[in-house]
Design goal:
By secondary structure, the protein is of the alpha+beta class. 61% of the residues lie in helices and 9% in strands.
Length: 383
């Protein structure tokens, strides 16, 4: 934890930086691929709407040891009145089987068939429930109206609190998160229930919260940007992403842990099928929201802002300043050598100018005579 905090501090101070904004083409390509897969899945597989949206009859009955999903499905279909393949889900206490809308006579036949095939105590152990499609349509309409009101309110708020370019980027990121979440639902064919709709509206608020936090830091870093030549808008926006990166990661992990518990433990291990619809939409939506606030929303804002003339001029000034600094930092090496004729016999040294290079040339050293000065032979003195 202390190491993570140290990294977070260095990111906040700008000592280290991850280039999120500069690699926007990579993020756009990844998101584009995921969105294409989601759209293709929606067009080919569609969504698996629950009984609340398309209407039908639901049978719930207790389970016994050794009863499998195929046994429960066959017990319902053996009644002879169910034409479509029923949807079977295991709950905490038994089975939940969804069929098309059945009459009261057909419902009784299904109860008798399940009671005989699964050896239940009595037919009343199979509890039927009929749901009309109009209720699901009302829910869908209300959810759509709520979504539109939410988006309009967000556009107005962000345009006032920040500016319209940030509002556009936030709406694009929200649409990105919604489409990815719905695409995953189509791929895995999870049943779309009212809980799924509630979860979808929940992730919109979460995704927007993380985006607004990053945008607030971007606004702080770019408030007086054009008065200096220190960095471009994209560089300042990337600095804001790095300064909020650790916070976004911590927030996402803390939010995803309980949702992962609902999805993998509650629905997967304990078999609480009623929880998986809500858990899946929250899990996928939170992941997509954390990703889009960093890798989609902020790069889009930078792209839109860099189209303005003032930020184009700023980018040119920053580039010119960087080139000038590089030229000044380049060392100039000059080596000065003395001519051979000017080198003294005993020793010559010449120092180069500007580079700290010393050129040393050594000539032949004259050997001193033994015994005294020049002209006097060594040896004993004459008497």
């Amino acid at each position: 934890m202390s190491r993570l905090g140290n990294i977070g501090g260095r990111l906040h101070r700008g000592e280290i930086s991850l280039d999120f904004v500069g690699r926007q083409k990579t993020w756009y390509a990844i998101s584009g691929l995921i969105l294409v897969i989601s759209v293709v899945s929606l067009l080919t597989l569609g969504l698996n709407f629950g009984v609340e949206f398309k209407g039908g009859t639901v049978f719930q009955f207790p389970t016994k040891p050794g009863v499998t999903t195929s046994d429960a499905r066959d017990a319902v279909k053996s009644s002879g009145v169910v034409k479509e393949d029923p949807i079977v889900q295991k709950t905490g206490t038994g089975w939940r089987v969804q069929t098309e809308s059945l009459s009261s006579t057909d419902v009784t036949k299904v109860q008798d068939s399940v009671q005989q095939r699964l050896h239940l105590a009595k037919p009343d152990d199979v509890s039927p429930q009929s749901v009309g499609a109009s209720w699901g349509k009302d829910i869908s309409q209300k959810a759509l109206e709520g979504l539109l009101v939410f988006l309009v309110a967000i556009i107005i708020y962000l345009s006032i609190a920040f500016e319209w370019r940030m509002a556009v980027a936030a709406i694009i990121a929200l649409a990105h998160d919604i489409l990815i979440t719905v695409g995953v639902y189509s791929l895995v064919q999870f049943e779309v229930t009212p809980s799924s709709v509630v979860g979808l509206l929940t992730i919109l608020g979460y995704s927007l919260y993380d985006t607004v936090v990053v945008f607030d830091k971007v606004r702080e870093n770019t408030r007086s940007l054009t008065t200096s030549n220190t960095m471009t808008y994209s560089q300042a926006a990337n600095l804001a992403v790095n300064q909020t990166l650790v916070r976004s990661i911590n927030t996402s992990i803390i939010a995803l842990l309980p949702v992962a518990g609902l999805l993998f433990i509650g629905a997967g291990v304990l078999g609480a099928g009623t929880l998986k619809d809500l858990a899946l939409v929250l899990f996928v939506g939170m992941l997509a929201g954390a990703y889009s606030s960093i890798c989609i929303a902020t790069p889009i804002v930078a792209d839109l802002q860099e189209r303005q003339e003032k930020y184009k001029t700023l980018a040119k000034r920053v580039a010119a300043k960087a080139n000038s600094a590089k030229r000044k930092a380049k060392p100039e090496v000059e080596v000065a050598e003395l001519p051979q004729d000017d080198v003294p016999d005993d020793e010559a040294e010449a120092s180069s100018v500007g580079a700290g290079v010393r050129v040393v040339q050594n000539g032949p050293r004259q050997q001193p005579r033994r015994g005294g000065s020049k002209g006097r032979p060594s040896g004993k003195k004459k008497r």
